[in-house]
Write a structure and sequence with these properties.
six-stranded mixed beta sheet, 4 helices
């Protein structure tokens, strides 16, 4: 899969829909593909805030815009199942592990997880 730099945050990745038929499998595969993954909807203000938060911390997340994918609604429903029917986006995975959506994320988890990712990315740049 080819990554494309876009705007000021991370990477936007066009999703191929023919590879996996089960949306949960697709979410798992996409979530494990990068250190930080955000499932987003381009018009969502909370999604925008999460992406800016990461970029402000020096992290370039891989962003999957569900409204740009033909199967985005199916993936959104799969994310809702993972989260227990809470708000579906933004959904953040760090190191392939589900961190959660904005209404479920504990700030302590965010800070601890982000410190590890930032340290790793800075060490890789050296």
């Amino acid at each position: 899969m080819q990554y494309h730099q876009a705007e000021s945050w991370g990477y936007y990745v066009p999703m191929r829909t023919s590879m996996l038929s089960d949306p949960l499998e697709k979410v798992a595969r996409l979530a494990s593909g990068s250190a930080v993954v955000v499932f987003s909807i381009s018009s969502c203000c909370m999604c925008h805030a999460v992406k800016r938060l990461f970029c402000g911390m020096g992290v370039n997340p891989t962003v999957y815009e569900l409204d740009h994918d033909p199967r985005g609604k199916e993936i959104e429903k799969a994310l809702m199942r993972l989260l227990g029917n809470s708000t579906s986006v933004p959904v953040v995975f760090i190191g392939g592990k589900l961190i959660g959506s904005m209404d479920r994320v504990n700030i302590t988890e965010w800070v601890q997880a982000m410190e590890g990712v930032i340290s790793k990315e800075k060490n890789e740049e050296i």
